[in-house]
Amino acid sequence: MRSVIEVRHLTHVYMPDSPFEARALDDVSLTVNEGEFVGLIGHTGSGKSTLVSHLNALEKSEPGTVFVRGIDLGAKETKLSDVRREVGLVFQYPEYQLFEETVERDIAFGPANLKLDEEEIRRRVRAAMELVGLDESLREASPFNLSGGQKRRVAIAGVLAMNPSILILDEPAAGLDPAGRRGMLELIRGIHESGVTVVMVSHSMDDVGKYCDRLYVLSHGKIALSGAPAEVFVHGEELRGMGLDVPECAKLAAALRARGFDVPGGAYSRADVAAAILKRFGKGGDAE
Predict the structure, then answer these.
(1) Which residues, in sequence order, are CB contacts of 150 under 8 Å at separation 6+?
(2) Closest by alpha carbon to 103, among 85, 129, 127?
(3) Which among 223, 225, 212 is positioned nearest to 64, based on CA atoms?
(4) Domains of the chain listed by start with CATH number
(5) In sequence order, which residues have a C-beta less than 8 Å from that of residue 40 and are 6 or more positions away?
(6) Interaxial angle between packed helices 118-132 and 178-193, expressed in degrees from 0 to 180 and rounded to the nearest 10
(7) Partners of 68 in the beta sheet?
(8) Overall average pLDDT of the 168-183 stretch
(9) Residue 40 in 3-state DSSP?
(10) Measured between alpha carbons, how far is 127 from 210 in angstroms, rounded to an integer?
(11) pTM, whole model, 2 decimals?
(12) What is the pairing mode between strands 87-90 and 71-72?
């Protein structure tokens, strides 16, 4: 697999050499490969947001090195504006960053700053709105009159209109109701399936278990665990010691194992649990 992001021995200290010195990242190394959907998980204060802010050079990567598609973000000759077109970063509550009078103008702001012609800007706005599920009729609407979920989709569309090949989202479903949360996560899955590499920060084990190919768990600024979801969730006690948990179905799988059901150690999905129950009672077929 070709890596698109490489972080090597990254450390970040806030307010060094002061009474308020805080080590947010401590010798962090990780890799994100082309086309992956990677989850970054950890308790509040574990370093997740600090880490992602380094991935398009909002924070300085020193000591340590961050590469995006082989480009060293810390090199003097690197044009950070080019990197930031390649890597789209969506912060928590991105709807708070909306400011234009219409949805169209808000989404078009980034492409307009690239000095693109009007037709290309309109094409990008249309494509971004379609990708995030915003109806064409909302182009002239004020973003401030939309629902919370729609506002967030406008903000994400503004990032997608820059045509990034890598999208990083910091708690994209934060503050949404259950229906809005499901819709947002399905939207992100659709963006990933369109060919965009996705890195998603989350504290929800159920969400990352359902959507992510691979996980990194941060604790006190360090990578504590990494691997496919099944490889990570098998460390239930260790995760709980970090202030995290495992998906609800992983808890049920553990309870079933304790009662003699043949459930794999890393099982965390409904399909895994259903298959074990059907097998126990001699039923075959599709566990979905």
Answers:
(1) 134, 138
(2) 129
(3) 223
(4) 3-246 (3.40.50.300)
(5) 48, 51, 52, 199, 200, 201, 202, 215, 216, 218
(6) 130
(7) 5, 71
(8) 91
(9) strand
(10) 26
(11) 0.89
(12) unpaired
Q: How far is CA 189 from CA 106, 138, 162, 247, in A?
A: 23, 23, 19, 19
**Peptide bond before residue 229 is cis, with ω within 30 degrees of 0:** no
Find out whether 85 and 49 touch, Cβ atoms under 8 Å: no
Is residue 3 a contact partner of residue 164, using CB atoms and an 8 Å limit? no
pLDDT in tens, 62-98: 799 999 999 999 888 998 888 888 999 999 899 998 9
Q: Give the tens place of pLDDT for each residue, 203-260.
A: 888 899 999 999 999 999 999 999 999 899 988 889 999 999 888 888 888 888 888 8
CA distance 104 to 133: 14
Residue with tokens 């202030």: 243
Give the count of beta carbons closer than 10 Å to the beta carbon of residue 108.
23
The per-residue pLDDT for 284 is 55
Residue 172's identity, in one-letter code, is P
Which of 159, 167, 53 is CA-nearest to residue 109? Answer: 159
**For 59, phi and psi rounded to 5 degrees?**
-115, 150
What are the Cα distances from residue 8, in Å, to 30, 36, 70?
Answer: 7, 19, 12
Pairing of strands 37-42, 197-202: parallel
In the chain, alpha helices (H): 48-54, 80-86, 103-113, 118-132, 148-160, 178-193, 205-211, 229-233, 236-241, 248-258, 270-280
Residue 208 and residue 248 in contact, taking contact as beta carbons nearer than 8 Å: no
Look up residue 145 and give its DSSP letter.
Answer: G
Q: Which two tokens stand for residue 174?
A: 């934060």
